[in-house]
């Protein structure tokens, strides 16, 4: 399918970051009431490793070179797809271009907010199927929070040395071994930042990874990963780590803490999160297509 009359597609330039941000922010605001994006994040995405602007991104513009829609695919172990405006001109062309760009046999994946009916209708028309769902949760911090006491025998450390860093990676890899969609990357590709390791009587048993993903857009801290090994469960380590993070975020002046939980998580994570005050704020579904 071609583009509507008066529109053309070209590769995005670094100077297009502001225009792409406006498209993305407008679409997200219509869906959730929040831009859920930053100009810095969009600019970083245009220079991200693995993203080739000349072949993997498409900016649809009118005859005055004004941005109308944008789509991109990031190639890796699988291919991640994004389309700014599923109900904007050229959305079907962007999707078909991404499918054509991906090598046969590659899994093309996209996360879709539950309320994004136009995008869901578009991708299902091309054969995408729904996989796991993710619940984004948040707790608000309206006052200082006292840090919790660690469980008996538990000590915390940040992995500044190689041995501790590898120990933290091992805990996270084991903790997410049953969740294929969230499996850890190879050690050499793992940033290793924002991680805290917990030891029980000297043995590595739990780890948490925090990021600043939502610090600018939502003024919140973010728990990217939390893993407790089976032999250490039932001791309150998960609850302790979360409450410790809440106290740290509140002390930093952040107004909340957020995280995402996979509906296929084999541990009773959702119940734990709700018990410490986290509430679901949005739900998204992973959709995928194996390109033939």
TrEMBL record:
<dbReference type="InterPro" id="IPR016181">
    <property type="entry name" value="Acyl_CoA_acyltransferase"/>
</dbReference>
<keyword id="KW-0808">Transferase</keyword>
<protein>
    <submittedName>
        <fullName>GNAT superfamily N-acetyltransferase</fullName>
    </submittedName>
</protein>
<dbReference type="Pfam" id="PF00583">
    <property type="entry name" value="Acetyltransf_1"/>
</dbReference>
<feature type="domain" description="N-acetyltransferase">
    <location>
        <begin position="155"/>
        <end position="292"/>
    </location>
</feature>
<dbReference type="InterPro" id="IPR000182">
    <property type="entry name" value="GNAT_dom"/>
</dbReference>
<dbReference type="GO" id="GO:0016747">
    <property type="term" value="F:acyltransferase activity, transferring groups other than amino-acyl groups"/>
</dbReference>
